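ugh finaly. both done.
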Amino acid sequence: MAKIAGLTYVDEGEGPVALFLHGVGTSSHLWRHVIAELRGERRCVAPDLPVHGGSDLREDLSLPALADAIEEFCAELGLGPVDLVANDTGGAVAQQLAVRHPARLRTLTLTNCDVHDDTPPPAFRPTVELAERGELAGLVGVVLDQPELLSATAYGQSYERIGDPAAVVEAYLRPILGKPGGGEAFERLLTSIDAKDMIAIEPALTLLAVPALVVWGTGDVFFETRWARWLRDTIPGVRKVVEIEGGRLFFPEERAAELVPHLRAFWESERATAAGSVSARGRG
């Protein structure tokens, strides 16, 4: 892991840059199987959002601020236009980034994520309410020592099957609580995610021409499939909606082998389209 602009990140492979964003309570580790498939053909960059992994804490943890943090990260790393792939809260950050810094994106792929006023989704509200009362960090601390309890939390609803709860705890939760003030910052992050920031960008999304793909797990209790259709009907750049039958929120981790072919096909199609446009202009 390296670190720049206060964010730790994975950087593997060579080729056009694919940038991967995770959501709350996970980290770049979520994308490890996707990256393993793609690093032979892409430069795969996956930062840990503020508070997560080894990344620093920040004062402003609103969605627009998180998008600006990712833009700063990309600029510091010297990345050109990227193929952005996002999940969960990372998808909300990606939408913010797309409207605030559209030149940063070559393409956009959204998997199950916060959309419009489904931010946070109703099924996640009990967790947010714990954070609002300052009780979430203490409960997460209990799970660190008793990982078998993980299945009774939102993680249990996000995976089809948690094969190794201890490994999930070590990958995602301990790095958050292991840093001074991490638990409190995590609570502040959850309470900073506000639907008003997503509703505010709807007009800009209706003008977003960046080529986009939507890949949605149909078994997600947090983000219903209707939100994939909302994205299709709102963002003019959306080329296709793909459904992953029975996939839950974290299907990019559990079922990476089903996501990767859609990424490859989408990127190749857009590359061919872009090459054809350049050729046509040359003939003109």
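ok and the 2nd:
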Amino acid sequence: MEPVVLSNVSFRYSRKDDYILQDLSFQAGVGELWCLLGSSGSGKSTMIRLLMGLNVPTSGTVQVFGECAPFRTMRPRIGYMPQDSALYNDLTGRENLHFFGELSGVKHRELSTRAAELLDFFDLTNAADRLVSKYSGGMQRRLSLAIALMAKPDLLVLDEPTVGLDPRQRLRIWNQLFQMNADGVTILITTHVMDEAERCPNVALLADGHIIGSGSPQEICQHAGKTRLEGAFLQILDGERIRREKHLVPRL
């Protein structure tokens, strides 16, 4: 059973609104690491919200491990880090980990051990019993990622996970993601940063609610005749917009 399957998905908030996603299809296999690359407004976060069951598609289907939203039985298998902080500021870092760990189905006897492991890995042990309201932005990002990993998920969904982190922290997190991926965890990451996308073995290019290209960074560059992903993305984007403009021009 494929971890992630989106089939002909379109989404808009109401009939008066424009579509944010249009006839989008995407699939991620077991143990694959995908980067969803696109600028702000391309539909990345909307796609993630659909995957998490936070929104329901206007048309088409979204499946996680074969189950459609809201993924009642599959949710414990999904680790999620939203773009905006979902932490409780009036709890400590350790208390946040315990609270979200329980929600994710971590057994009570395992909470303390798992929380301690993650606090150590993300260099938060010394701040573990400090209120999250006292954390810096980078510390909050690291704690959010730790929460996403509490239940040792089979599918990890990260929306702009390294925003606000310094280069050393970013490298450490990427190394952890690669290790998890090597252990068979399926990972989806959204980003608008090209050098982040170039780290990933699989990239899907999003623009205006469509996937306009996908493959490895090398395959995408080769297809576009470019040496770097940024140039390839811009060329594919320009070509897609020209194609649509021609399609919209009525024939005389």
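summary for the 2nd one i guess: The chain has a mean pLDDT of 92.
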